[in-house]
Write a structure and sequence with these properties.
four-stranded antiparallel β-sheet, mainly beta, elongated, Immunoglobulin-like, four-stranded mixed β-sheet
């Protein structure tokens, strides 16, 4: 290991407790696809629970917000954590009108799929 890498590794070990969480801002986690009769939004949201999701469709704008919190462990000191908070927020103006009554959202294995039937 060269001196620079050793220095960074020592820095990480020394300050692991000072920074308890890292935040992923959500860049690059979502895609919107046209599947013919519907649009499908897919977003990678590892560790997010359904109760931590906020999905809204207003005036043909889809808003998706999610948050994964990392509680501080009880009973011991955290020496190192590479799992951080995740905050995801997207507002997408949809290219076609959507039937709001037919929207279906599923969160499964850390992947959110929202099916948006065209009106």
């Amino acid at each position: 290991m060269n001196d620079t890498l050793r220095l960074f590794d020592a820095f990480d070990r020394r300050f692991a407790n000072a920074v308890e969480t890292r935040t992923l801002r959500g860049d690059g986690f979502a895609k919107l696809a046209d599947a013919g009769e519907e649009l499908v939004l897919t977003a990678d949201l590892p560790g997010v629970k359904p109760e931590d999701l906020d999905i809204r469709l207003e005036a043909n704008v889809l808003t998706v917000r999610a948050e994964r919190k990392q509680p501080k462990p009880e009973g011991f000191d955290l020496l190192r954590s590479e799992r951080g908070q995740l905050r995801f927020s997207r507002q997408i103006e949809l290219p076609v009108r959507i039937d709001p009554d037919g929207v279906i959202a599923k969160l499964e294995n850390g992947v959110l799929n929202i099916h948006l039937p065209k009106a």
